[in-house]
Each structure stands twice: as structure tokens, then as C-alpha cells.
Design brief:
The chain is mainly alpha-helical. Helix content is 58%, strand content 3%. The chain has a two-stranded antiparallel sheet with strand order 1-2. A two-stranded parallel ribbon has the order 3-6. Strands 4-5 form a two-stranded antiparallel ribbon. Strand 4 and strand 5 form a beta hairpin. The longest helix has 36 residues. The N and C termini lie far apart (47 Å).
Length: 500
């Protein structure tokens, strides 16, 4: 029996709920992306942040919870018909990693000491900024204060947590908005890839892509995405691009997908895909570490100094850690939650309790109003807070993003070795890949394989290794980790939360 039609109709209901939902005050109605996302990044009013955070979850959670258990039943039925115990097992099978749950747990444990030190700094600075009545000295951090609608990136908190004074710290979002238009953002991303010897975007890309919400389509989903239309030249990006630091990174990420599409377009349709889904997510973000490096920021006229003073180097590492490290715990929690739901271990009435248990355990982040004990007693039990994330409404696994954080730094180290030689003669965080044809050739050798070879083969082409490893990430952030340990020890800041 085919369950495709039933599953699709339920997913359409979820997607429509997500894309049409708004949160309104007396003057405006806000979509999640980019409206509420920008508000969460820029406001420092805790009441306003709580209004936006809670309002979005109230707008999407209860209606999604009515549909989601039905979708779980239908997808699980289809999975069992195909020989799997549940849909979570299907998702894990796609990655071709038989021990993915143990692999993910091991990778998380390797980076946990770095995350705990970063968490300690952020919590202490937020406590100083917002006061002890909102932020405890040694517990989880309230989710609405972390500068992101989902607390998966803390990049926008730089003004609160930075060790540098405001005059020493460049406001990249302001400078990017002053210097570049939306079209400039896209062309700068294209220029970066072309500098590596990769091809420019096609004519159809420029004609068919959408970079801003059309005036006549208020309910368009603005979550950034890329599409391969399986021709030789039709590749597109859809996003509502804001001229800020976040979306400067996002457009490079999405164009990384396009470069992957173009690199394997010569293959049969069945092989036109990444080595696995995590590879696709890792490619564009590999260059995050170069585009926000001091050499490239100076190249674009966004900073004046050489960027390699100890203070400046530390600041740039902190920026990147705030952007990347919190995603690890968030992504792992999101798919552990869904794996548990698919496996029947979490009933609908415990959706939120199970979710916030994972968020506290893995990330030291808590619900703003309900403690873990209150959640178990039924606080906010009619909601479905994981549904605040697009990937739940669209039924997209998130473990790929967890793995991609590790892969992108493996890729980055491999490409830096292609440019500079191995072992690297410079610290990894000082590597600048712009203009390196050697790096571009090594990248293209991997991208062009598509899904025609195993992910282990593809990884070996670019890194020389066949295993996903946390070591390049730890090497990259080692100077920051050392500083965080010393700074937290010097100031007596508690490290960890709730016995973690």
C-alpha cells in the first residue's frame, strides 16, 4: 500500500501552517524569516524578545501538534512496509553510517569541553547584561536571550560577549549593508567560488532565483534553499536575503549547494546528489572560515588592520564559535527528539517535555517560562516547540547539519593543505583560500564524484581520511578554547549546568 499521497497532504498542511503563520503587534505582523529572526538578533529588550519567541511557538506549535502525530503514523507505516522499524531508521540509513547514533554521541563528547567554556562566557555576560533575575549563575540559559529564534546560533550576541571594546570591534552587518546591495552579496559569493577556478552561475540561475520576498507573495517560505532542476543549466536559490553578516554567510552556503549541483551534472540522474546529505550541507560552510577571515574581510574593505593581532584574532575566532558551536547541540537534540517520536518513545502530550529535556541536557538552554519539572507536570503541554523550526514542518533531517559542522572543518583543513602544503605552516584559523586554484582543484575532484562513490571515498579525496573527525574543529578553535579556560578560571565563572 502506498502512503505517499496521505503523507504529502499532511506535510503540505504543516508547511502551510509554518509559511502562513505570523506574530502581530499593534503595528506589524511578522513572519519567522526574516522578520522575527532579525528581531531576535537585534533587540535587547527582554520583554520584546520573550513576546517574539513565545508568539512564534504559539502560532505554529498547537496547530502543528494536531497534524504531526498523524504524519508520524503514516511515515512509520511506509517505513515498515519497506523493511525498516520506523521512519527514523530510514533517515539514519540514508547517511550510510550504521552506527550514526554512537558516532554522533562521540563527536558531541569531544567538543563538549569547548562548548561548556563558551556557554560559561555567554551565560556570565548575559547575566551581567540582563540581570540575575533572568539569568542564573550556573544553570541553563533562557532560550529567548540567545539572539536567535531557535538558539542555534549566538552570533548576534557578539556585542554583549566580546572581549573587545565597541571601537575595536567591527560591526560587519552595518558595514556590509553600507557597501553592498542584495545583488552585490550574490555576486561576491559567485566571485569567491570563481576565484577557486569553479564555474560562474548560469543565466537561468540569475533569471529564476529569488533573493527577496515578492510583494505579491506574502506567504512565501523565506527559509533559504537551493534547487537542482536536473538540467545542465537550471539551478536556483530561494531566500529573503537581508544585508547583514548572517546572510552574507548564508548566500555563500547556498551557492556551495549550486556548485555541488553543477559539479556532478554530468552524472546519471540517480547519482546527481552529494556523497551523503551532510556533505551537501558542509561544502558551502567550508568557506565560512575564509570569507570571515581577516584577509578576506580586508579584501572587501570591511576591516582596516591585518587582523592577526592577538586581540583581533581572538575576536574573529569568537565570532565563528558563536555562529557554529551552538548548532551542534541543537541539531543533535532536534533529531534525537524526532528519532524518539518515530520510535514511539514520546507521546504527543510529552512532545515539549522531551524536547526541553534534550535542550537542557545537550546545550544548557531552557524554556523561558517552564522548568524541566514543570514541563513533566504539564506546563505548555499543548504546544510543540520543535515545530518552530522549518525543518520539522518540512520533514528534513537535521543530523546532516550536525555532521556538517565537523565535515566543513575537515574540508577546510584539507583545502588549506592543498594551498599551503602539509603540515600547515600557519595556524588553521589564518588560512585564506580566496584565489587558490590548488584548493579549487581538490574541491572539484570531490564534488564531481556526486553519489557515484561512497562518502568515505569522497572524504578521502579532500582530506586523506576516511573517518569523520572532531580534531580539525578542535585545532581550529584551540586558541579560543585556551583563552576561554583561562578567562573563566580567572573570573571564577561556573562551567557547566545542572550537573553537566
Amino acid at each position: 500500500m502506498c502512503h505517499c499521497s496521505s503523507a504529502r497532504s499532511l506535510m503540505v498542511r504543516l508547511e502551510r501552517t509554518f509559511s502562513s503563520a505570523t506574530v502581530c503587534d499593534q503595528e506589524h505582523c511578522y513572519h519567522a524569516e526574516p522578520d522575527l529572526q532579525t528581531l531576535m538578533e537585534t533587540s535587547r529588550d527582554p520583554d520584546r524578545l520573550l513576546w517574539a519567541w513565545t508568539g512564534w511557538r504559539n502560532a505554529v506549535g498547537p496547530p502543528m501538534r494536531e497534524v504531526y502525530p498523524q504524519l508520524i503514523d503514516v511515515l512509520n507505516s511506509g517505513a515498515r512496509h519497506a523493511g525498516f522499524p520506523d521512519m527514523g531508521a530510514v533517515w539514519r540509513y540514508e547517511l550510510e553510517m550504521p552506527n550514526i547514533e554512537q558516532t554522533a554521541a562521540g563527536l558531541y563528547e569531544e567538543i563538549k569541553p569547548l562548548y561548556q567554556q563558551l556557554h560559561a562566557l555567554v551565560r556570565a555576560q548575559l547575566r551581567s547584561y540582563y540581570g540575575p533575575q533572568l539569568v542564573s549563575a550556573d544553570g541553563p540559559i533562557p532560550a529567548h536571550l540567545l539572539g536567535n529564534l531557535w538558539s542555534q546560533s549566538w552570533q548576534s550576541l557578539e556585542d554583549i560577549v566580546s572581549p573587545l571594546s565597541e571601537t575595536q570591534r567591527p560591526d560587519l552587518s552595518r558595514k556590509l549593508a553600507q557597501k553592498f546591495s542584495v545583488t552585490d552579496f550574490v555576486k561576491l559569493a559567485e566571485n569567491f567560488y570563481v576565484s577557486l577556478g569553479l564555474p560562474p552561475m548560469t543565466e537561468k540561475f540569475w533569471r529564476n532565483s529569488i533573493f527577496q520576498r515578492p510583494d505579491d507573495n506574502r506567504n512565501m517560505t523565506c527559509h533559504a534553499s537551493s534547487a537542482d532542476f536536473f538540467t545542465d543549466d537550471d539551478f536556483r536559490i530561494l531566500m529573503c536575503l537581508e544585508r547583514n553578516e548572517r546572510d552574507f554567510g548564508v548566500i555563500h552556503h547556498e551557492m556551495g549547494h549550486i556548485q555541488y549541483f553543477m559539479a556532478y551534472r554530468h552524472l546519471p540522474t540517480i547519482l546527481r546528489d552529494g556523497a551523503n546529505s551532510a556533505f551537501h550541507e558542509a561544502v558551502g560552510d567550508t568557506f565560512f572560515y575564509s570569507i570571515f577571515g581577516p584577509a578576506h574581510l580586508r579584501r572587501l574593505g570591511l576591516i582596516d588592520d591585518d587582523g592577526f593581532s592577538p586581540e583581533r584574532s581572538l575576536q574573529l575566532l569568537l565570532q565563528r564559535a558563536l555562529a557554529k558551536i551552538p548548532l551542534i547541540g541543537f541539531s543533535l537534540a532536534l533529531d534525537r527528539w524526532r528519532w524518539q517520536v518515530y520510535a514511539g518513545r514520546v507521546a504527543p502530550e510529552r512532545y515539549n517535555a522531551a524536547w526541553w529535556q534534550l535542550r537542557e541536557q545537550l546545550s544548557g538552554v531552557r524554556h523561558p517560562a517552564c522548568t524541566a519539572q514543570q514541563m513533566e507536570a504539564g506546563c505548555n503541554a499543548d504546544g510543540m516547540d520543535p515545530g518552530a523550526k522549518f525543518h520539522v514542518a518540512d520533514n528534513i533531517p537535521h543530523i546532516r547539519y550536525f555532521l556538517a559542522v565537523f565535515l566543513q572543518l575537515q574540508f577546510f583543513e584539507g583545502l588549506c593543505e592543498a594551498k599551503y602544503g602539509s603540515p600547515l605552516p600557519i595556524p588553521l584559523h589564518e588560512c585564506d583560500l580566496y584565489g587558490s586554484r590548488e584548493a579549487g582543484d581538490r574541491l572539484m575532484a570531490m564534488l564531481s564524484l556526486g553519489k557515484g562513490r561512497s562518502w568515505q571515498d569522497a572524504l578521502e579525496v579532500i582530506t586523506g581520511s576516511r573517518e569523520i573527525s572532531a580534531q580539525p574543529l578542535l585545532r581550529y578553535f584551540q586558541p579560543l578554547h585556551d583563552w576561554l579556560e583561562e578567562e573563566n578560571r580567572r573570573t571564577g565563572r561556573p562551567v557547566g549546568w545542572g550537573g553537566q
